[in-house]
Design brief:
It is a single chain. The protein has six helices and 17 strands. By secondary structure, the chain is α+β, with helices and mostly antiparallel strands. It folds into two domains: 124 residues, Probable inorganic polyphosphate/atp-NAD kinase, domain 1 (Rossmann fold, 3-Layer(aba) Sandwich), CATH 3.40.50; 133 residues, Tumour Suppressor Smad4. Helix 1 links the parallel strand 1 and strand 2. It starts with a strand and ends with a helix.
Length: 272
């Protein structure tokens, strides 16, 4: 069994949790550290893009999970050290019992769709939550033309456009007024940041659709942001094409169903 650890940058407490987990693992299991973990755990670290493991344990928040899903290979078991932590499976007080379940193989691997993203035909990193095209400068509205499977949908003046997966619909897209999609659904949500007109509402399209965002007008500098992790500059005339990736995000889960995660991570958080 090969276990990898990825922790949030400059988080001594995250490293201590990793250390406590390692103490419980069989001595014959292979353990891999990313560079950040290795700084604290006296191991030799590798770049996160070189990690390939049976289980990748992330300790941090959703950002740590997203960075790992974007660059490493293997199912992720997230331990929450942040806020909501929708993509993380465990809170700190659940770690001990979860490790024993892991040792016994009492877990399941669930999958969620990723987005394939291209800029003018050149593919960049996949993303798990959302791809966002945003104005480069604050409070400078931009004009976007949106196409679905080659068919013109609308011209939108706004601060930006979000295309989210079902699992990402609970994140940035939701804060922009987009609907919450159950992760079991096969679709993508298109939502808008501070739209100039409220006539066009967020749209849900099938997961096998291709969404094109064309930067219209002159001098329309924007930024394409993938899962809040990677950024690319785009400008007038550029085309951002988004479709379903052939790769899926994989998660280690101890819950009985995805509805348990929605209840624990979203509904309880809203009610409280």
């Amino acid at each position: 069994m090969k276990i990898a650890f990825v922790i949030r940058k400059d988080c001594d407490r995250c490293a201590r949790i990793a250390e406590s987990i390692i103490d419980l693992l069989p001595k014959d299991w292979d353990i891999i550290y990313d560079h950040e973990s290795a700084k604290y755990l006296n191991g030799s670290g590798v770049d996160i893009s070189e990690i390939s493991a049976d289980v990748i344990i992330t300790i941090g928040g959703d950002g740590t999970v997203l960075r790992t899903l974007q660059m490493a290979k293997g199912p992720v078991l997230g331990i929450n050290m942040g806020g909501l932590g929708f993509l993380t499976e465990l809170e700190v007080d659940e770690v001990g019992s979860a490790v024993f379940k892991l040792l016994k193989g009492q877990y399941r691997v669930s999958e969620s769709m990723k987005l394939k993203v291209e800029i003018n035909g050149d593919r960049v990193e996949d993303c798990t939550n959302e791809a966002v095209v945003h104005t480069e400068r604050i409070a400078r509205i931009r004009q976007f033309k949106i196409y679905i499977d080659g068919h013109f949908l609308s011209t939108m003046k706004s601060d930006g456009i979000i295309v989210a997966t079902p699992i990402g619909s609970s994140s940035y897209s939701s804060s922009a007024g987009g609907p919450l999609l159950l992760p079991t659904l096969k679709g993508m949500v298109i939502s808008y940041l501070a739209p100039y007109s409220s006539r066009l509402k967020p749209v849900v399209v099938p997961s096998d659709s291709t969404v094109e965002i064309r930067i219209a007008g002159r001098d329309q500098e924007c930024i394409l942001i993938l899962d809040g992790q990677r950024e690319y500059r785009v400008k007038s005339g550029d085309i951002v094409r988004i479709s379903r990736s052939e790769n899926n995000a994989r998660f280690i889960s101890f819950r009985e169903s995805i509805y348990d995660r929605i209840r624990d991570k979203v509904i309880k958080h809203v009610v409280n």
